[in-house]
């Protein structure tokens, strides 16, 4: 059997990243990085409009949100975390709503499978 098109693989990765966010398998900043990256990979195949992920990441651009946290002074990190929490609280509902929309439109609830089409699934 032939490999699925790249667009299908990317769509599966998008659904997986959205699920990881809403199930708290990853932190919100890292999960949003994943979603944003996969959305950019999908652009040549289908334009999906979820600007909230980039808006959130833009707000965090000066804050440590990944492995760079290990290099920060702990006192400075505590202060940065206060800012991170404020921004995350402000965006959380919109980010989760976008994730649920991605899951509802492009993922199937049974067995964790994903639609093999780039069209929204019927509900």
Describe this structure in words.
- This protein is mostly helical and about 120 residues long.
- The protein has one domain.
- It is about 60% helix and about 0% strand.
- The protein has four helices and no strands.
- It has helices at about 5-20, 30-40, 50-60, 75-105.
- Helix 1 (about 5-20) packs antiparallel against helix 2 (about 30-40), helix 2 packs across helix 3 and helix 3 runs antiparallel to helix 4.
- It is elongated.
- The model has no long low-confidence stretch (mean pLDDT about 90).
User: Beta-strand percentage?
Assistant: under 5%
**Sheet with the most strands, sense and barrel status:** none
3D shape: elongated
Rounded radius of gyration (Å) = 16 Å
Q: What are the segments in which pLDDT stays under 50 over at least 5 consecutive residues?
A: none
Count up the helices. Answer: 4
The first-to-last residue Cα distance is 29 Å
Number of strands: 0
Helix share, percent: 55-70%
Average pLDDT over all residues = 89
What string, H for helix and E for strand, traces the elements in order? HHHH
Q: Which structural category fits the helices and strands?
A: mainly alpha
Tally of distinct domains: 1
């Amino acid at each position: 059997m032939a490999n699925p098109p790249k667009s299908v693989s990317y769509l599966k990765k998008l659904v997986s990243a959205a699920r990881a966010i809403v199930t708290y398998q990853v932190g919100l900043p890292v999960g949003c990085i994943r979603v944003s990256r996969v959305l950019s990979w999908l652009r040549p195949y289908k334009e999906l409009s979820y600007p909230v992920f980039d808006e959130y990441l833009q707000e965090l651009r000066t804050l440590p949100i990944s492995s760079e946290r290990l290099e920060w002074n702990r006192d400075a990190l505590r202060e940065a975390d206060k800012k991170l929490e404020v921004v995350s609280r402000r965006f959380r509902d919109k980010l989760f709503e976008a994730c649920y929309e991605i899951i509802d439109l492009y993922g199937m609830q049974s067995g964790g499978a994903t639609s093999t089409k780039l069209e929204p699934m019927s509900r």
